[in-house]
Amino acid sequence: QKEVEQDPGPLSVPEGAIVSLNCTYSNSAFQYFMWYRQYSRKGPELLMYTYSSGNKEDGRFTAQVDKSSKYISLFIRDSQPSDSATYLCAMIRMDSSYKLIFGSGTRLLVRP
Amino acid sequence: DVKVTQSSRYLVKRTGEKVFLECVQDMDHENMFWYRQDPGLGLRLIYFSYDVKMKEKGDIPEGYSVSREKKERFSLILESASTNQTSMYLCASSPGQSNSPLHFGNGTRLTVT
Q1: B99–A92: do the CB atoms touch at under 8 Å?
Q2: What is the reported pLDDT for A99?
Q3: Where do the DSSP E strands lie in chain B?
Q4: For labelling, which of A6, A63, A89, B97 has a CA lying 20 to 30 Å from the CA of A103?
């Protein structure tokens, strides 16, 4: 069983929709959580970085962490065609240094 | 903004060749990483380095080696390229704190024929 599970999609939504992307994890030692966006033929770009449970908002993006359920989410409001990309969740264990565990990524397509 | 630069975007090499992938970061980060990314397998850590001349094996180091002679530069070496090393290679860097997120370059797509 993978430490971090992420639905690969693809997820196809109309422009303007609210998008919900999710990851589950199995190890309660994970404390730091990230979301990366990766456009085709580009490297991953850091979108959100959160610590511990709760919400963090940045413009149209909201990252949510629920440690009791071992579940993290990224919400995108008013989605745009330019949001079409692969979204990777990532997390760091407190018992491990210099190593992120990545989800396999969810491909998102926002239709005009 | 952190800039991580990988020297080649696309590379085609023959089986058995020695291949060098170069990565440079401009933010004085202590930590540097090499990943490969394959469809269905996600990102897998090959090697990382937390200081000059220091290196640690990641999850899939076989067939690879690395070199870090200067803080800003981290090289990945394929000693004898094989077709199963055809992949997207991503370099990343981060500051010294163990909870820091990684900053990635744009990747090198390597094809071994």
Answers
A1: yes
A2: 67
A3: 4-6, 10-13, 19-25, 31-38, 42-49, 56-57, 64-70, 73-78, 87-94, 103-104, 108-112
A4: B97
Beta bridge partners of A85: A108
Contact A92 B41 (CB under 8 A): no
**How far apart are the C-alpha atoms of B42 and B74, rounded to whole Å?**
22
> What contacts A2, CB < 8 A, 6 or more positions away?
A26, A104
Respond yes or no on whether the N-terminal peptide bond of residue A81 is cis (omega within 30° of 0).
no
What is the distance between the alpha carbons of residues A41 and B42, in angstroms, rounded to a whole number? 14
| Closest residue to B105, CB basis, from A8, A43, A51 | A43
Q: How far is A2 from chain B (nearest CA, A)?
A: 11
Adjacent-strand bridge partners of B37 = B43, B88
User: What residues of chain A, 77 to 106, have a C-beta less than 8 Å from chain B?
Assistant: 88, 90, 92, 96-100, 102-105
A–B interface: beta-carbon pairs under 8 A: 55
At B35-64, the pLDDT tens digits run: 999 988 889 999 999 999 899 999 999 999
C-alpha pair distances (Å), B69 with each of A16, B61, B90 = 49, 19, 19
DSSP letter (8 states) at residue B101 = P
Rg (CA), chain A: 13
